[in-house]
Design a protein that fits this description.
Blueprint (H helix, E strand, L loop, with lengths): L1 E8 L3 H12 L6 E5 L14 H4 L13 H5 L2 E5 L3 E5 L4 E4 L4 E9 L3 E3 L12 E3 L3 H9 L6 E5 L3 H11 L4 E5 L12 H13 L3 E3 L4 E7 L2 E7 L4 E3 L2 E4 L3 E3 L2 H5 L8 E2 L11 E3 L4 E5 L5 E3 L4 H15 L11 E6 L2 E7 L6 E7 L4 E8 L2 E8 L2 H12 L6 H5 L5 H7 L5
Parallel strand pairs: 1-2, 1-6, 2-3, 6-18, 8-15, 9-10, 9-15, 10-11, 17-19
Antiparallel strand pairs: 4-5, 5-6, 7-16, 12-13, 13-14, 19-20, 21-22, 22-25, 23-24, 24-25
Helix pairs in contact: 1-8, 9-11
The structure holds 1,4-dihydronicotinamide adenine dinucleotide (NAI).
Length: 414
Amino acid sequence: VKHVDVLVVGGGHGGAQVAIALRQRKFQGSIAIVGDEPHLPYERPPLSKEYLSGEKPFERILIRPPMFWAERQIDMLLGNRVIAVDPVRHYVRLGSGEAIKYSKLVWAAGGIARQLNCAGHDLEGVHVIRSRADVDSMLRGMECANRVIIVGGGYIGLEAAAALSKCNKKITVVESQDRVLARVAGEPLSRFYEAEHCAHGVDIRLSTGVDCIKGSNGRVVGVQISTGEYVPAELVIVGIGIIPAIEPLRQAGASGDNGVDVDAGCRTNLPGIFAIGDCAAHVSGFAGDTVVRLESVQNATDQAMIVARQLTGEPAVYDAVPWFWSNQYNLRLQTVGLSSGHDQAVLRGHVEERRFSIVYLRRGQVIALDCINSTKDYVEGRALVTRKSVLKASELADSSVSLKSLAERVPIQL
Ligand code: NAI
């Protein structure tokens, strides 16, 4: 049986970064990445943006040039998946039947796109956006599609709407909650994005679900929505969240109700097994010390660094501030901190100029900012979040006063 010192499961942002960081830190042992996609690690965010709209070819979204991995002796086991983990004898079994023994295992398998479970969910022309293959197969049917229905008004749905409206498609977004981006943003931001999409001709239906998808000759022709209406479409994009890809780990005895639980060092309860990225649930000081599972590039790459540091003999604790971005039309959203649980949302700047920030407070403390076309606020606001600054809404609302000067004024809270 083949033996690998560090076996990484998943070749996304997190998995790739573990291997990159280990070599940067002069780790001498063997490293292998098992990835179920046939491709070298690539960036996922452009899939719902520039890759979808055709502005960036695949080569430009690779995380490293193809030669990088071989040069650093990082063994790429692509087109293969781990189907079982034996945490006692320290080996995994691959879909191909092969077994690999490991010294340390890093689970970075991310998530799989949730599917609808209504009738017609598997018709041709119904797509998710999670992998290059998803987008490629969608693009193949794109020319004949004039009407697109997007199920889910999260980042995937809204970014896809923005990218496809550039291609002159008629787009309807069906969102089950009463506002878009409800999972990740405060209400004022949701309302702003709804208005922006509306101004670009996107029809957003809130508090609306999908009853069934109708087809003809195996291909989608429309969607029956919960208002009783039938909306014709040649293409349906489903962006209703992800399910953490953790089944083999769970079978092996990993704990966790929402993903896999990890400690501040990204260790699971299983010996020698770490978990990072979209599938790892951890206690976050930025969420009032509650358990969160963050789905972001920042979280995946920062947790990867924590694991790499520990595997090269340096103790490390994950306490990075969460950040996030989204591009839609000519709006650049940058988020720092976690806004859920806020009791106040303060507007800074001018919505009509499409350049503003929303500062989220909980009991007077700045916990997050959503910044639209306001990179300065984003950069300076980060200090307010990391220092847990307590400020008055009226001070924050005054955009003639920089956040930097506010950050310098308040004492650091420990
Ligand atoms: P999401 O969880 O962010 O949003 C899903 C949306 O679908 C929610 O608004 C939810 O209320 C709605 N929904 C759920 N079930 C529904 C149903 N049956 N009918 C209608 N609406 C329904 O997940 P999303 O947008 O699919 O994104 C998946 C992952 O990709 C997330 O981890 C996200 O953070 C990530 N992503 C990140 C981006 C970025 O970095 N800017 C861009 C796109 C996605």
